[in-house]
Amino acid sequence: MKKKRSSFFLWCSVPWFILAALALAGCVSTPEEKAADMVLKNGHVYTMDANGTKAEALAVTDGIIVFVGSNADAEAYVGPGTEVWDLKGMMVLPGMIETHLHPPGTADADLFSISLFDVMSDLDAMLETIQSFVEEHPDLDMYFGSGFSTGAFTGMEVSLGPKKERLDAISPDKPIFLVSYDGHIGWINSAGLDYLGITKDTPDPAGGRIERDPATGEPWGAMKEAAAGLMPVQELSLEQQIEAMELFQERMHGWGYTGIQNMSGRENLEALAALESEGKLKLRVRSAVSLDPEADLEEEFALLEESRDKYTSPLNTVGVAKFFAD
User: Fold this and answer.
1) 263 phi and psi, to 5 degrees?
2) 197-216 pLDDT, tens per residue?
């Protein structure tokens, strides 16, 4: 069976083994062909071509798939130094593409701040995690984190959001700024409210809501939608951003993804470029750059074109404009 060269990506279901960035190449089975670096056999290889062709084996040389076909024909590519994987009936399929992601996902929180994603359904566990981070980082002036869920709360906190007093008990003097797992709600303590100058008289921002205590009118501790945008964002060094992006990439490969649509845009373009310059970027990343419809649109489009023209490599491109119409 012969295949034309294409830009197809494959993911192999060998435990956490990713065939990332391997272009599907033509099958060549001549006797003089050098032994492949790797051969996968005894599998169900889904080529996803127009005919729905399936195969048993494939061979890889210098990062290129040079053969797709039967187990018998694959033996021509096995030499003394060839790494041979017996798939034992497991599946090989094209690498998946995630069409809406905000890299580095939870990696930056897991590495550099309070990460609540693994305990979001357990209020006591969330509070313990916050407490532990604060105690382990007494040198920080303020604390950032993400991953909480209002589903872990009861009573008025289900509708209003988590209240500031829970965080006040952990850090009465230093601000704590937490963002929910979906990015729509902020949770802030009294020190954080003071830092931002938010009082009972502070008006809600357009498109957002500062929740307030129904009895006193004082800020409750939950900041919703655009109000959450009033909270400061943790500043990470370029080195930290690159480290988080590497962890994100490792996780995506582990789940079988070889390409993504990056919806964070300008926030991580520099880190992606740095990762690529070091030869460590293995995902295909297409980024969306946010536009502000209320800003000077000529300037906004100029920034978009600048990013489009700057990032043009096969692994790192900008080609989408993102904006909110509501």
Assistant:
1) -95, 5
2) 999 999 999 999 999 999 99
Nearest Cα residue to 162 out of 178, 144, 174, 182: 178
Q: For 168-207, what is each residue's pLDDT tens digit? A: 999 999 999 999 999 999 999 999 999 999 999 999 999 9
> What are the start-end ranges of the H helices in 207-281?
238-254, 269-277
The model carries a pTM of 0.72
Length of the chain counted residue by residue: 326
| Nearest-angstrom CA–CA distance, 301 and 289 | 10
Q: Which of 188, 187, 41, 220 is nearest to 120 (CA)?
A: 187
Burial 100-139 (b: 16+ CB within 10 A, else e): ebebbbbbbbbebbbbbeebbeebeebbebbeebbeeeee
Closest CA to 179 of 136, 225, 132: 225
